[in-house]
Amino acid sequence: MLSPFLWLSVGSVAFYLAGTYLALRAFQTNKPTNRIIRTGSGIVAVMFHGAAVIVAIDAATNLSLGLTLMLACVGFAMATVLVLNQLRKAASHLEVFVFPLSAMSLALFGLLPNTGLVRLGLPTPLFIHIVLALLAYSVLALAAIQALYLASFDRLVKAGNRLPAGLSLNTIEETLFESIWLGMIALTLGIVSGFVFIEGYDARGMLHHTIITAAAWATFAVLLWGRVKAGWRGSQAGQWTLFGFALLAIGYFGSKFVIEVLV
Question: Which of 38, 110, 165, 212 is disulfide-compatible with 30, CB 3.0–4.6 A?
Fold first, then answer.
């Protein structure tokens, strides 16, 4: 008999793939009639995804904040933020990337061992910090995907080519900076909350994580300053976004990979 985690995971991956297929069709043909079905697929996928993670955590003897669990949580948060945004405006170009990545994160969580720091219970400050960190990583990951589109489409426009129907550089740019502002708020609160419980916390990799995360925060702060004061946009904004997110990813997932896999 299949476990509840397996059923939920298979269901989530199936709906993620269905949403990806519908998003590809919408992206290529710009048919708004697919949006309701596509959004519905995304909602069911994230519900199954979240339930699968909760079932796995509940069934575990000890809670391990390992790499695969955090990847699954980030995948869930990314898809959730995207689906909520989809209720406000179409974003098929993001779903094409985010839904497969979220499905992959859940599959890796089920297939690979979840090693890492074991905790019997999460203090409230630590739980708040984790939620804020997940929100920051997820929203800024969406910003990084937007930055890739922005850089690619900017080159297309400069080469005299037309963009896919329903998309414009201004729309992508506005969504990019909306994501960065939201991500920066969450990242700032996450960094501040981290100092609440930093004393007595397992310090392996913490110094590197803190320094690189601070560098990522500074990168996004400079980008927002450049946007407000100097009107940065286009490829310049995209490059700063990608650099900032690369630092953020290295600071957290790079540190966990080294500690849990290589060490």
Answer: 165
Strands (E) located in the chain: 63-64, 118-119
Q: What digits encode the pLDDT tens for the residues 96-142? A: 889 999 999 999 888 876 555 445 466 667 777 788 888 898 899 99
CB atoms within 10 A of CB 130: 17
CA angle at 152 for the pair 214 and 149, rounded to the nearest 5° = 60
In angstroms, the CA 22 to CA 64 distance is: 35
Nearest-angstrom CA–CA distance, 235 and 226? 13
For 251, residues 6+ apart whose C-beta sits below 8 A from its C-beta are 208, 209, 211, 212, 213, 215, 216
